[in-house]
Amino acid sequence: MDEKQKAVADEIVNYLCETLRLPKENVSYDVPLFGDGIGLDSVDSLEIIAGMNLLFGVSLMGVNDGVFADIRTLSEYIINDPDYKEKSI
Predict the structure, then answer these.
(1) How far apart are CA 18 and CA 61, in angstroms?
(2) Are 73 and 80 in contact (CB under 8 A)?
(3) Cβ atoms of 2 and 86 closer than 8 Å
(4) In sequence order, which ranges of the chain are alpha helices (DSSP H)?
């Protein structure tokens, strides 16, 4: 994972922990977001979709479920999306 993807992944982790009230120690880049991983559900996926649009300008409506596999996969999708807006620091 390069620096750009890591920055996006870290921002996703922070967003998930704050918005969904997840303990940060339970969230890593490779833990599955749904099912036996973190255990998110379909309502949580709507939060993720809205948040990624707000944070990065990327619409996840209608994307393949595989994009939501884990934070590494989600962050890779986001940085490769043509609508991705990198934050200036």
Answers:
(1) 22
(2) no
(3) no
(4) 3-19, 42-56, 71-80
Q: Which of 50, 58, 88, 62 is nearest to 75 (CA)?
A: 58
Q: Supply the pLDDT for residue 88.
A: 57
> pLDDT band at residue 86, thresholds of 50, 70 and 90?
confident
Residue 74 one-letter amino acid: L
34: β partners: 40
The tokens describing 69, both together, are 């596999």
Sign of the four-CA dihedral 50, 56, 58, 63: negative
**What is the DSSP secondary structure assignment for residue 20, as one 8-state letter?**
S
pTM of the model: 0.92
